[in-house]
Amino acid sequence: MSVVRKLLHSTKGRLVLGVLLFYLAWQGWLRVAASGKISAGLNTGAEKVNLLVTLPFPPERFHVIVLQRYGRVSGTQDNSIEVRGVRKEDVRAVARPYWVIRVEPLQT
User: Fold this and answer.
1) Right CATH number for 38-105 from 3.30.70, 3.10.110, 3.90.120, 3.40.1000?
2) Which stretches of the chain are DSSP H helices?
3) In whole angstroms, what separates CA 106 from the centre of its chain?
């Protein structure tokens, strides 16, 4: 009997495959949804951009620390976090978490 057949016939194997498929679907959805969160105003030629990241709730320390991976957090406003000096390649990564609603250029 092949390994795949054994895996499909066991309850643990089906559970592991189900969790793996759910995880892959979740990651795919996050990737697709990130594009819709990014404002059209970010299509500038600059290498680094300043962002205003909007959340559905007031940001907590966790959210600030996560966004510090991509740039310098300069402050918060209501439900938004200001992130400065984000590389263009990292804008999609900033928009990827499910708790980010919108990413737009920071008005200075």
Assistant:
1) 3.30.70
2) 3-9, 11-37, 61-67, 91-95
3) 18
Query: Whole-model pTM?
Result: 0.81
Where are the chain's structural domains? 3-35, 38-105
DSSP string, 72-108: EEEEEETTEEEEEEEEGGGHHHHH-STT--EEEEPP-
Cα-based distances in Å from 77 to 35, 40, 46, 53, 106: 23, 21, 24, 10, 12
Q: What is the pLDDT of residues 35-84, one digit of tens each?
A: 899 988 777 677 899 999 999 999 999 999 999 999 999 999 999 999 99
- Hey, what are 5's tokens? 């057949």
Residue 1: band (very low, low, confident or very high) from pLDDT cuts 50, 70, 90: low
